[in-house]
Amino acid sequence: MVVNDAVQLTVTMTLFVVSYVFFRISVFVCFSLIFLAYFATMNTPLSLAGMAIERYVAICNPLRHSQICTVRRTHILIAVIWGAGAVPAITDLFITLATEPAGFFHSSIFCIHSNMFRAPAVYYKGQAFDILYFSFVSLTIIYTYLRIMFAARAATTDRSSAAKARNTILLHGVQLLMCMLTYVRPVLEVALVGAFPKHVLEIRYAYYLVIYILPRFLSSVVYGVRDDKLRKYLKGYFVCKLQRVRPITLLER
């Protein structure tokens, strides 16, 4: 998931910088950037589901965790996630190749998804994939969270481990909820652009920060704060409290 987030943030930041500097870029370059960004974005909820399942196995089936969550199966799961994430972007390409004239691919456009993929079929196909993927991930996270919560209540030992796993699943649910804000983007964008037509780029940049940056920032911060050693140092820096150094005398040596 770290690699996926790094790819997603790098590509989307490149896309925003290029859009601000050049405004119109080649269709081929635009497609390459949008393909990678869309691919990485679709991988995020699927990765959250995979991580939730791993926590569920670790808490509810601890004796079989090492047998179920092997390195080989982890690699297979990652390949399945990345393959499933690439399907929507690949179908967008096929629909565009079938519906757009040849001259379109030699032109320059302002690089956003609606300008690159103009066929109505792309919109409806995207809605179908979004509903399918996010429904699957939502049900997976809800199911694993409830099972872990019940396991934590029934456990007589190792309650702290179950509580940490439950909090991890809850964090994934919050991240998924923030990712699902993508659904309301068209409505909000139309309303805001209609109210502030001179600030289209600023509106899209704010949307980028809220939808793409904030969920990944939240994940890094929360996982970092949960680490005892890192939390101790962060607490010292944020409260601006320096450790007092007591000089050592010759007698103490």
From TrEMBL:
PROSITE patterns tied to this protein: G_PROTEIN_RECEP_F1_2 (PS50262)
GO molecular function terms listed in the Swiss-Prot or TrEMBL record: G protein-coupled receptor activity; odorant binding; olfactory receptor activity
Gene3D superfamilies the record matches: Rhodopsin 7-helix transmembrane proteins
Entry protein name: Odorant receptor 131-2-like
Compartments reported by the entry: Membrane
Domain G-protein coupled receptors family 1 profile as annotated: residue spans: 1-223
Gene: or131-2
Transmembrane spans: 20-41, 76-98, 131-148, 169-185, 205-225
Coiled-coil annotated residue ranges, if any: none
Keywords assigned: Membrane, Receptor, Transmembrane, Transmembrane helix
GO CC annotation: membrane
InterPro entries reported in the protein's UniProt record: GPCR1_Superfamily_Member, GPCR_Rhodpsn, GPCR_Rhodpsn_7TM
